[in-house]
Amino acid sequence: MLNDYSNILILFLTVGIGFILGKIKWFNENSNSAMTKLLLNITLPITLILSITTDFSKKEFLTLIPAIILPFSTILLLMLISFIVAIIMKLPRGEHGLFIGLCSMSSTVFFGIPITMAVYGSHQLPYALMTYIAQTIIYWTLGIYLLKNDNNTEKFNVIDTIKNIFTPPLI
After folding, report:
1. 116-126 pLDDT, tens per residue?
2. Through-space distance between the first and last CA atoms of the chain, rounded to whole angstroms
3. pLDDT < 70: residue spans in the chain
4. Neighbours of 115 (CB within 10 A)
5. DSSP assignment, residue 154?
6. Which of 9, 32, 82, 97 could potentially form a cystine with 147 if both were Cys, beta carbons 3.0 to 4.6 Å apart?
7. What is the separation of C-alpha 57 from the centre of its chain, rounded to a whole number of angstroms?
């Protein structure tokens, strides 16, 4: 159990170091963009592939597919509750999408997957991935639609949506 907490502490220390380095201007806009691309397009997919291929067979992973209903249902329920709360709080109409997104979406990739691996081990990674898949699909469809609906300046683009859903980590 102490090992679990130390792994989580390392994760938070890493985030803290990144925050401090950003504050002292060690990173600029170009390095932030490069780090994000490196993390999302190279490091994360390789980590996921290595973890899944060593701890799971294709058959085991495919048996989890029906379990994706739970994260989809949970996120959609949170979106509905957030919508109702936005109405009760009388938020301006142009802020509903942002509020719903903030209340229903989590940082599955940056925190969920590392915490799952630290606390439960890589054998539980597919469960975290089911949540990531559900969240990615909902965010890049309904979430983006709601955000674009807030500002009424951009139209919802189906081709861009499909491109954004099929990112390297999801594939």
Report:
1. 777 777 777 77
2. 33
3. 1-5, 7-8, 11, 40, 47-48, 51-53, 55, 109-110, 153-154, 156, 167-171
4. 18
5. S
6. 97
7. 24
- CB neighbours (10 Å) of residue 106? 13
Tell me the pTM: 0.69
Q: Which amino acid, one-letter code, is at 40?
A: L
Q: Using CA atoms, how far apart are residues 37 and 91, in angstroms rounded to an integer?
A: 34
> Among 74, 135, 126, which residue's Cα sits nearest to residue 107?
135
Cβ neighbours of residue 58 closer than 8 Å, sequence gap 6 or more: none
17: tokens are: 């170091």
- The alpha carbon of residue 73 and the mean position of all alpha carbons in its chain are separated, in whole angstroms, by 16
Rounded mean pLDDT of the chain? Answer: 79
Return the half-sphere exposure (C-beta side, CA atoms, 13 A cut-off) of residue 119.
11
